[in-house]
Amino acid sequence: KEILEKYHDLFTLQWEGVIGSMCVPSQAEWEQLLTNCSAFLFYGMERFMSHVSLNWLVAMNIPKCRLVILLDLVRSQQSYKRITNSDIHKSCLHIALERPTETAMLLSLTGVGSVIATQWYTTFQENAERLEVLFKNFLSFGKTAGQTVHILQS
Question: Its domain of life (predicted)?
Fold first, then answer.
């Protein structure tokens, strides 16, 4: 929340979404957010794809979304229980499609221009630091996604 407030003036007036524990988005809300945006940010627990329906995503066409940033893969005891209970009802192939590389490929196939994603489990603090670097370089310095990822890697 602090990072969003810090960079608020640099955002467009069309910034919209769900913040914090306001509510859990429905599949229709996920679809609306992804299809009506030029950039999409997910900052949350576990795998992004554990929050959206795989069948729904692969049927989507979202070419207006030029950039998806997935700052996910944060685990808590509560999120681990939720994901474990959810994964029981999924096939091994389905779970494999929720991994970071596969998620990036699926988003790319739906028309997303670029995907920036974490590759392994991390903490909220580490993702907050990544978000700060992303916003500073995108919004304050006007750097490209490639330049910003290069900064994140170093």
Answer: Eukaryota
Q: What pLDDT is attached to residue 10?
A: 66
Range 130-137, long-range pairs (CB < 8 A, 24+ positions):
130/71, 131/3, 131/41, 131/43, 131/71, 132/3, 134/69, 135/3, 135/6, 135/7, 135/10, 136/7
pLDDT tens digits, residue range 93-120?
999 999 999 999 999 999 999 999 999 9
pTM: 0.89
How far apart, in whole angstroms, are the C-alpha atoms of residue 2 and residue 62? 29
The CA distance from 151 to 88, in Å, is: 38
